[in-house]
Amino acid sequence: MLQLFEYIKGIFAFDPNSPLLFTHFQFWAFFAIVFALFALFQSRTLLRNAYLFFVSLLFYYKTSGLFVGLLVFVTISDFFIARGIYHFRDRSLVVKRLLLCLSVIIDLGILCYFKYAYFFADVVNQLFGTSLEVSNIAAAWANDMTGSNFFSIDRIILPVGISFYTFQVISYTADVYKGLVKPVRNILDFGFYVSFFPQLVAGPIVKASDFIPQLYRRYSLSRMQFGMAVFWILNGLAKKIILSDYLAVNFIDRVFNNPQFFGGFENLSALFLYSLQVYADFSGYTDIAIGLSLLMGFYLPLNFNSPYKAQNAGNFWKRWHISLSRWLQTYLYIPLGGNRNITFGTYFWISTITLIALILSGNLYVALTVLALALAVIFTAWRYPEKRKHIYANLNSMITMLLGGLWHGASMNFMIWGGLNGIGMVIFKFWRDMSLLSRALVPTLLSVVLYVLKLYSFLPLWNLLLFFMLFIAASAWIRYIYNLAGCKNPLTWLNRGWSILVTFTFITFTRLFFRSGSNLDPAIANETAWGIAKDMINSIGTQWNVNVLDVISAYRSVFILFVLGMIIHWLPTRFKRRYRICFAKMPLPLMAIVTVLIIFICYQFVTAEMQPFIYFQF
């Protein structure tokens, strides 16, 4: 009896060394029990939602321990604040705004405490010459309340998924304020919306207007829906285990941990492989979340749409992490003024970003450069009224991308990553508006500049950049000549493929700063992350004294997986839709056989230590 009690206690106890991950057997045992009991409540809406709410809290407890109390607190506060906003909808606009501000302050205050405490301490120390050290005040309070030393006060640990569910509750309160949705009727339903376990810890970020109506629908699962749900689950597991984890453990992590010990080709390869890894990891999680939700009768929004088929940086962000991109557009870009104007918020964030650049870089010239560029853009908009809206749109877009970078973490690397993506989007807009002749002349002139640099400072990196620039110039001249002749460009398909390749390469190089800035202790992130990025750039630019074929041969399984993964990613959308439908329509016995086969194949790629999902840390 005692052994049975200890076993049951172990099932419900939190083990920080073994959180519930979609790739663990424990999770699937957990889900099997949850789904079996779900069948008892699926026809009664209130009981179903309440049951899934408490199951989600249990899941989060098994993933993050007592941080589940933080999730409960956010749920309760936003539930009652949103009801207050709705109550005063026709009475007092001031009270409504105060309640909305209260909700945002609470939610962002909690997020900033756990995610940016080290950053704010650095700000205060540098501005006032103090030597403050970060201490976990929340843990100290909990110890005082319980009369124990159970919680460590030496370090602030980031709760799993806090960035995602914080954005989700903010969107709910904001939508109630705008009158887009009515408040949820009871706190159990709202708690279920906030904490639904398939998408709780890594998204997608679900808008209240999209998900809340589903709370009151009767459960239904057709034969076709069941087949699609199984497909998405298997697809996500294959992405995570076969592509993401295998590539990371056997090549990518080795290079990023010690970039100076590897040559330029290995460092460059690690960058491109990481682009596939982070996509397979994040979209794999989303696929599994969509499949699990579908089994329980709920629909989650599309979060990835073949992002490496994008032909420019702007289109990439319409395909990658779609729920975050839409959230930033709705609740940040548009309030800043969108593509029409600039507001007080624009000036506020320019000043804030300048200060952040100063603190993170520790260099006054970096901050002054950021401020000077922003002021130059504003002056240009004032000087040329006919281009004002276009300039304002680019400025607001750039601020949005910089803040999107900081959402991932308070590191100069994340800020650079967000800024580079913003620059890529702005450059494409200028490129799109150029005449065909200008599109040919600009890369030609840049090719000349790169050639001169190559003569004075021979680096293999110049050869790579020069090759890309010459190809862009050549394709632009061909298009210009055919346009002069009044002929249709016969190389349209080649131009499209080249645009995809250039965009993929650009996004890959920005990931250098993203990958270097993650998986680090917040207290040392800036120095260490920048060192990793610098070492990789130096290696890519200088250390090409290795036989490329020998490296490919030594890691042939890694490179084969990379090529296969990219081929599958670039398959036509129609073809992918066909094989998804084909799987979903399989007879159940055949589907079971295929499922067992896929799981067996995945098992062959399981690494010694299961890797957590990359976005669990954000």
Structural class of the secondary elements?
A: mainly alpha
- What's the quaternary structure here? single chain
Order of helices and strands: HHHHHHHHHHHHHHHHHHHHHHHHH
Mean pLDDT: 81
Regions with little confidence, pLDDT below 50 for 5+ residues: 519-525
- Give the strand content: under 5%
Overall helicity: over 70%
- Number of E strands: 0
Report the major sheet: none
Radius of gyration in whole Å, from Cα? 26 Å
Number of helices: 25
Net shape:
globular
Note the gap between the termini.
42 Å
What does this 3D model show about the protein?
- The protein is mainly alpha-helical and 618 residues long.
- Helices cover 73% and strands 0% of the residues.
- The chain is built from 25 helices and no strands.
- It has helices at 2-12, 25-41, 45-64, 68-87, 93-128, 137-146, 162-178, 187-195, 208-211, 223-257, 264-295, 313-319, 322-336, 344-361, 364-383, 388-408, 412-433, 436-456, 460-484, 492-516, 525-542, 548-554, 556-569, 573-584, 588-604.
- Helix 4 (68-87) crosses helix 8 (187-195), helix 11 (264-295) packs across helix 21 (525-542) and helix 22 packs across helix 23 (556-569).
- The chain is globular, with a radius of gyration of 26 Å.
Features of this protein?
618 residues; mainly alpha
